[in-house]
Write a structure and sequence with these properties.
Shape: globular
Strand order of the largest sheet: 1-7-6-5-4-3-2
Number of strands: 7
C-alpha cells in the first residue's frame, strides 16, 4: 500500500469524547456540521462496525456533489476510529480520528495517511480544518 504523505490536524472542543464520537458517526449529526465552508453535507450513511461502510456527500458551491466513502477498520467507542477514505476513482488513503479527553474538553486528532502528494495534502488540510471549524461551531451553538 502507498505510504504517501501524512497530515495531522487537531482541535480541542468543549464536549465529552462520547458526544464528539456520536457527532462524528451519526448521520443526522454529521449532516449538521460536516464540510469546510461553503461546502455542506447533503447526505451521510454510516454502518458503524469493523467492515461497515460509510458514505458522505459534499454539496459544492458550484452545484456538484463530491462523494467520500470508505470502510471502518477499527471502531473503539468513544476514543478512536480508523477508516479508509476514497474520493471518486482516487486511490484510497487512511484516516484515524482520536478523541482524547482534556478535562472538560476533548482534543480531536485527525491523522490522514497515504496521501499521494503535497497538492492533495494541502487540499485535505484545508478540508479537515474546515470540518473541525464546523464541529466546534456545532458544539458551541449547543
Amino acid at each position: 500500500m502507498n505510504q504517501g504523505i501524512a497530515l495531522v490536524t487537531r482541535r480541542t472542543i468543549r464536549a465529552s469524547a462520547a458526544r464528539l464520537f456520536e457527532a462524528w458517526t451519526q448521520p443526522e449529526q454529521l449532516r449538521a456540521w460536516w464540510g469546510p465552508s461553503p461546502v455542506t453535507c447533503s447526505g451521510a450513511e454510516v454502518d458503524l462496525r469493523v467492515g461497515g461502510r460509510y458514505r458522505i456527500a459534499n454539496a459544492l458551491p458550484d452545484g456538484k456533489t463530491l462523494v467520500i466513502e470508505g470502510e471502518f477498520q477499527l471502531v473503539e467507542m468513544p476514543h478512536k476510529l480508523v477508516y479508509t477514505w476514497r474520493v471518486g476513482d482516487d486511490p484510497a488513503s487512511r484516516v484515524t480520528v482520536r478523541f482524547e479527553p482534556r478535562g472538560e474538553a476533548t482534543e480531536v486528532v485527525v491523522v490522514h495517511e497515504q496521501i499521494p502528494n503535497e497538492t492533495v495534502r494541502e487540499s485535505h488540510e484545508g478540508g479537515w480544518n474546515g470540518c473541525l471549524d464546523g464541529l466546534e461551531r456545532y458544539f458551541s451553538a449547543g
